[in-house]
Amino acid sequence: MTEANEFGRLSLWRDTAGLSDMKARDLAARLELRARAEDEAAVRDEYVGLLGVTPGERVLDVGCGSGVVTRVLARRVAPGGCAVGVDASPALLAVARERADEAGLSGLIELREGDCRALPFPDASFDATVAATVLVHVPNAAQALAEMVRVTRAGGRIGVFDFDGDSLLIAHPDRELTRRIVAANADYGSVNGWLARQLPGLFTDLGLLNVRVRGFMPLEREPDSFYASSTARAAEVAAQMGAITPDEWARWRDAHAAECAAGRFLGGRLHLFVWGIRPPA
After folding, report:
1. pLDDT of 182-198, one tens digit each?
2. Radius of gyration of the chain (CA)
3. Parallel, antiparallel, or unpaired: how do β-strands 209-216 and 152-170 relate?
4. Residue 147, Cα to own-chain centre: how many angstroms?
5. Domains assigned to the chain
């Protein structure tokens, strides 16, 4: 596949290891904005609950970013447990440390630099391992999944929460143009926009037991929300990849702004949580 049409070429999250401090803080602000939304918080609490995290456990958050999920895990493992966050970006980890300190959770959190496809931990290090909206942006996500299984103890739980690229919901008057935008963004705004659909099969191939799937659809209506900016970004990706013309982009963008200004915006995306159990050795 040539560079011109390589999937995930315009993903903001594909190669984060070398992020500058300024860029990392911009991306962290996006994560924290999403985290504050009512639907997102409810979904996050539910899938962490499905993973069965309990006090005293040692759990791993893969691709922790600014530490949103790590902080939730830390509260669940207290007292006596530890939430470990690993990320390829030293700059994002610096933000995660600040956020953990602000939340009074630094004593329950460890943060490590590392690639999710070669996790810097021994075998069977964790009671549970989770990756949230990370692997869709990772080339060779199957290797990352294998690593998550490796570092989880026998009988421990592995979970992945990720979005379906073709299931981006945008309230917009132009159906045909919006469909083209959603398809282009699924291909070029993430490395594998169909990963969520493939996860149950990948879990099964790795030998995990009791593999289950739950669907979630967080939605937002506010014009300054995460999904308002994400849908605008989707149109930008489509324009940059030539899926829509500059004139179409301008027309779509103007209509999107009008919908937001009139209080008619609705945006969201289907997410799947897939989880299973590592079998005994």
Report:
1. 999 999 999 999 999 99
2. 19
3. unpaired
4. 17
5. 3-166+191-219+269-277 (3.40.50.150)
